[in-house]
Amino acid sequence: MDQFISLLVVILVLSIIFFLITREFWCWYWKVNERLYNLKQIESYLKTIAKQYSKENAVDIVPEHELTGKVAKCKECNSEIVIQEADTDQGYFICPYCGIRNYL
Ligand SMILES: [Zn+2]
Asked: Is residue 66 in a domain?
């Protein structure tokens, strides 16, 4: 039983070492490097577009997941409301003071 366990450990360690040595090959083979490069390119293009859009329309584009927990002002009564996750899901929040729907 002890021999079996030590054999398993040796096989596991060798497999990990083999994977680490051939990692670059598998990343190339499954085109992981290319996909990562393309995603970074897309991200940079989107950031450029968002920046340009923000400048032209004088708005701030903030990703939804970064909005949760932030404070927004109601456009009607100017009271400050903390944005909840449900608000970002539906794309707006309803002011508890005046009942006006504010889009994010
Ligand atoms: Zn309000």
From this structure: yes
The residue segments making up the domain with residue 94 are 62-104
- CA dist list (Å): 11 to 8, 14, 16, 22, 63: 5, 5, 9, 16, 45
> Measured in angstroms, how far is the CA atom of residue 81 from the centroid of ligand 1?
9
Given this model, what pLDDT does residue 35 score? 96
* pLDDT above 70: percentage of residues in the chain: 92
- For residue 83, tell me if it sits in a domain: yes
User: What residues are neighbours of ligand 1 (ion), with CB under 5 Å?
Assistant: 74, 76-77, 95, 97-98
Say which DSSP state 84 is in: P
> Separation of 71 CA from ligand 1 center, angstroms?
13
Q: Is residue 52 part of a domain?
A: no
Q: pLDDT at residue 61 above 70? A: no
